[in-house]
Amino acid sequence: MYMSLYRLMAEGDKKKVAKKAHCSRNPVLARGIGRYSRTAMYARRAMYKRKTKTTETKIEKKMKVKTPSTITKTVGGDKNGGTRVVKMRKMPRYYPTEDVPHKLKNHGKKPFSQHKRNLRATITPGTVLVLLTGRHRGKRVVFLKQLSSGLLLVTGPLALNRVPLRRAHQKFVIATATKVDISGMKIPKTLSDAYFKKKRLRRPRHQEGEIFDTEKEKYQLTVQRKEDQKAVDSQLLPLIKKVPQLKGYLRSSFCLSNGVYPHKLVF
Amino acid sequence: MVFKRYVEIGRVAYISFGPHAGSLVAIVDVIDQNRALVDGPCTGVKRQSMPFKCMQLTDYVIKVPHSARQKFVRRAWEKAQVTEKWAESNWAKKIEARQKRAQMSDFDRFKVMKAKKMRNKVIKHEVKRLQKEAAKKA
Predict the structure, then answer these.
(1) Which PANTHER family match (chain A) (predicted)?
(2) Would you state the pLDDT for residue A14?
């Protein structure tokens, strides 16, 4: 009887069976302490069987951008040769004879750039958001993507409500249930936090006179911004026109009136 | 008459609050001053005692003897077609409209605003026209 069961098992093994996830094979003795050691767990989980790595696809290879090791910079003045080659990763300029005293390392204190970014489940690409603060408060706007700093990239579109490609903060935004299907849209890769960051003019000529006036107060529109806006909006506007009345909805602004209570509204 | 709807055996009531809020039940028996034995076989309410406070009497009465068993309450309910009549009544329609309004999304509210505006424009236009005609005649 055992022989026949064994034979049945061998035939079944050849097909790949979709296995259900197993619970933890390491019972907890006390909080933070498991029954088995690291090597025992390696054997129990059969990690020795799970060592293969799939070959890297060509797309993944293209996505890996390798920073150049040298850069050529131009040299001014003639008779100097037009360019010089500069190494990006230079050798150390000083080797200390004694060990440099180092501070003790922290645990789990990450800089802002490495923080985990959360996004509310109700905010997905293509959602119509209501901006609550800023000069565009009350305006309804289309969400494009979340940038690496956690801020939301958002556009009016400009032709409908004069909101350009802009960043918005997740906390100061109401996500409505209305969504536009953006899956076919291509957002230029140049739109990042560095693109939107405010520029600061910092060259005081050590004069106490009119420092506060000459700093850049007015925002100057650049040609690149106009082009990017056109590139995004030209893809977005036909998608908006497909949904009846959505254009008028995005042109209108949100307001509260008598008898309207935000905690009772379904957005 | 001061009161038109009475608590009687077979009176169909609408439950306004509590765990079974929103459903219809038939009063099968009276327990004491404050409670009734109630059953809603066609509306998913198990046979139980219920205080009169959470019941609102409707116009419908089904013919059922007191303490009748659920099978006969169901039979009488279906014979009188209470659920169909209730769905057609203004009361039920108003409840449904209230629920729909509460579930409206922001975009829906915008569409309703636009529709109302269009309708009012047509109405006002017509009223103005009729007023002008009446003024001309006078």
Answers:
(1) 60S RIBOSOMAL PROTEIN L6 (PTHR10715), LARGE RIBOSOMAL SUBUNIT PROTEIN EL6 (PTHR10715:SF0)
(2) 44
What's the CATH number of domain B1-102, 2.40.128.20, 2.60.40.4070, 2.30.30.30, 3.40.50.2000?
Answer: 2.30.30.30
0.90 exceeded by the pTM?
A: no
- Contact list in A for residue B104 (CB cut-off 8 A) is 266
Q: Is A263 part of the contact surface with chain B (CB cutoff 8 Å)?
A: no
What are the C-alpha distances in Å from B99 to residues A149, A219, B15, B92, B96? Answer: 40, 48, 16, 11, 5
What residues have CB less than 8 Å from B79, skipping those under 6 apart?
Answer: B62, B63
ipTM value greater than 0.90 = no
Q: Summarize pLDDT for A227-246 with one digit per residue, the tens.
A: 999 999 999 999 999 999 99
d(CA B127, CA B119): 12
Q: Assess A128–B contact: CB distance below 8 Å, yes or no.
A: yes
Query: Where exactly are the structural domains of chain B?
Result: 1-102, 104-137
∠ Cα A151 A152 A155 (to 5°): 140
